[in-house]
């Protein structure tokens, strides 16, 4: 860092709330998978704004479309029809096999709507105190209801009393799910991420997804799958649960859907599509013309450029290169425990906490994140090339080896 670094990068920011332990960098602009900070230093972006910047930065077809939209109308309110809401909803319906969409602006807002849907689904059936099954290590957001659904005490601490009506179970254990709900007539829904993101890149097994789908059908529960992080093509299918050949009843989306423009959506199938009636739910910003244009163009460009196939191809390339480079560490019980995930949603779990790697990688020109204390998370833009993936490996792996060689 040179003398041009403004003081707010060095100390706690004087005027914004102290909510983030930030890396002392401010990004000024980007192109593709490359970003530059305000001092002109380049970085390779393997974080993608936390799985948000699907098309990378300054995309040559997204940017003109957004400029066109901004010059026409940014926001109009849901008092009126927004034609691109219908267009984007039709596209999401086509891609998901579900039927209807509610638009909002963030992931927690999509999940909050899903939780309301589940409760009203219960009330409509005469269940006065509906209960929803949620999972260990889950992350669903930071509103009071979604942090209550989240399976992380750090997120919940200091914000009690939590919202009631959640039953928590372990991942990938159908017998545990059956036992936790046995004889309980108040259960209305099962709610999880296909691949947990913040929880440490923890995938639900295909067989488990199919078993839960079947159980939900048998018991008339809603299957609600939070695809906020793992959805929108990141695993090589539009939605990660599609690898199991199942459909949820409710699917919250956000992060990658607008390539950086705030947007959220709840996609519902026949069992949940008509639960909300006028007056039950709404939002000021949700579905506004700018966000809708971003969603429409993001999906159009993803299709035109084959970005799902790219996620599979470059994800496999990245994973193979990491596995090769870290072969010795993967054999060492005190080294790398596992490389997991799908497509361009990969986690590298170390046998020790590794939060300091975020800063060390940034110093070497690579943006990553570490989640669940010991899991390096790679969720780059879906436009990443194999050569860029090689560059990620070339910067990251020596730093992992160096960290593992230090005494903890
Ligand atoms: C990020 C995330 C959320 C919360 O999204 P926000 O836009 O930050 O509210 C919810 N669920 C999952 C799976 C996420 O990764």
From TrEMBL:
It is an enzyme of class 2 (transferase). GO terms for cellular component: cytoplasm. Keywords: Amino-acid biosynthesis, Aminotransferase, Arginine biosynthesis, Cytoplasm, Pyridoxal phosphate, Transferase. N(2)-acetyl-L-ornithine binds at residues 142, 283. It is found in: Cytoplasm. GO terms for biological process: L-arginine biosynthetic process. GO terms for molecular function: diaminobutyrate-2-oxoglutarate transaminase activity; identical protein binding; N2-acetyl-L-ornithine:2-oxoglutarate 5-aminotransferase activity; pyridoxal phosphate binding. The modification N6-(pyridoxal phosphate)lysine is found at residue 255. PROSITE patterns: AA_TRANSFER_CLASS_3. It comes from the Bacteria. It catalyses: N(2)-acetyl-L-ornithine + 2-oxoglutarate = N-acetyl-L-glutamate 5-semialdehyde + L-glutamate. Pyridoxal 5'-phosphate binds at residues 139, 226-229, 284. SUPFAM superfamilies: PLP-dependent transferases. Binds 1 pyridoxal phosphate per subunit. Its cofactor is pyridoxal 5'-phosphate. Transmembrane segments: none annotated. Gene3D superfamilies: Aspartate Aminotransferase, domain 1 (3.90.1150.10), Type I PLP-dependent aspartate aminotransferase-like (Major domain) (3.40.640.10). Its EC number is 2.6.1.11. It holds the Pfam family Aminotran_3. Pathway: Amine and polyamine biosynthesis; ectoine biosynthesis; L-ectoine from L-aspartate 4-semialdehyde: step 1/3; Amino-acid biosynthesis; L-arginine biosynthesis; N(2)-acetyl-L-ornithine from L-glutamate: step 4/4. Its main location: cytoplasm. The keyword Cytoplasm applies. Homodimer. May also have succinyldiaminopimelate aminotransferase activity, thus carrying out the corresponding step in lysine biosynthesis. Belongs to the class-III pyridoxal-phosphate-dependent aminotransferase family. ArgD subfamily. This is Acetylornithine aminotransferase. The gene is argD.
């Amino acid at each position: 860092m040179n003398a041009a670094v403004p003081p707010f990068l060095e100390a706690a920011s004087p005027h914004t709330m102290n909510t983030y332990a930030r890396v002392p960098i401010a990004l000024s602009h980007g192109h593709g998978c490359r970003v530059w900070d305000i001092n002109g230093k380049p970085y390779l972006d393997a974080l993608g704004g936390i799985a948000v910047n699907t098309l990378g930065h300054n995309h040559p077809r997204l940017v003109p479309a957004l400029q066109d939209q901004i010059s026409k109308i940014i926001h109009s309110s849901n008092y009126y029809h927004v034609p691109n809401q219908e267009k984007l909803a039709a596209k999401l319906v086509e891609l998901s096999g579900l039927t209807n969409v509610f638009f909002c602006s963030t992931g927690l807002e999509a999940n909050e709507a899903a939780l309301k849907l589940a409760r009203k689904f219960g009330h409509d059936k005469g269940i006065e105190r509906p209960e929803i099954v949620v999972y260990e290590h889950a992350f669903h957001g930071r509103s009071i209801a979604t942090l209550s659904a989240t399976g992380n005490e750090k997120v919940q601490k200091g914000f009690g009393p939590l919202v009631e009506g959640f039953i928590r179970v372990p991942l990938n254990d159908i017998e545990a799910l059956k036992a936790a709900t046995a004889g309980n007539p108040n259960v209305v829904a099962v709610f999880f991420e296909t691949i947990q993101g913040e929880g440490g890149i923890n995938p639900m097994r295909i067989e488990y997804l199919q078993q839960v789908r079947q159980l939900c059908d048998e018991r008339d529960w809603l299957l609600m799958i939070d695809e906020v992080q793992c959805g929108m093509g990141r695993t090589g299918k539009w939605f990660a649960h599609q690898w199991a050949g199942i459909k949820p009843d409710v699917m919250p989306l956000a992060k990658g859907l607008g390539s950086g423009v705030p947007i959220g959506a709840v996609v519902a199938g026949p069992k949940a599509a008509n639960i909300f009636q006028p007056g039950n739910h709404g939002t000021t910003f949700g579905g506004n013309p700018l966000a809708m244009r971003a969603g429409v163009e993001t999906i159009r460009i993803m299709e035109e450029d084959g970005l799902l196939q790219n996620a599979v191809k470059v994800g496999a390339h990245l994973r193979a290169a990491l596995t090769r480079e870290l072969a010795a560490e993967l054999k060492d019980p005190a080294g790398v425990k596992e490389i997991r995930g799908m497509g361009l949603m990969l986690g590298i779990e170390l046998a020790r906490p590794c939060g300091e790697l975020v800063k060390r990688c940034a110093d070497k020109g690579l943006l990553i994140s570490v989640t669940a204390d010991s899991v390096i998370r790679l969720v780059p833009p879906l436009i990443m090339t194999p050569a860029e993936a090689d560059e990620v490996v070339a910067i990251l792996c020596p730093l992992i080896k160096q960290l593992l060689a230090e005494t903890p």
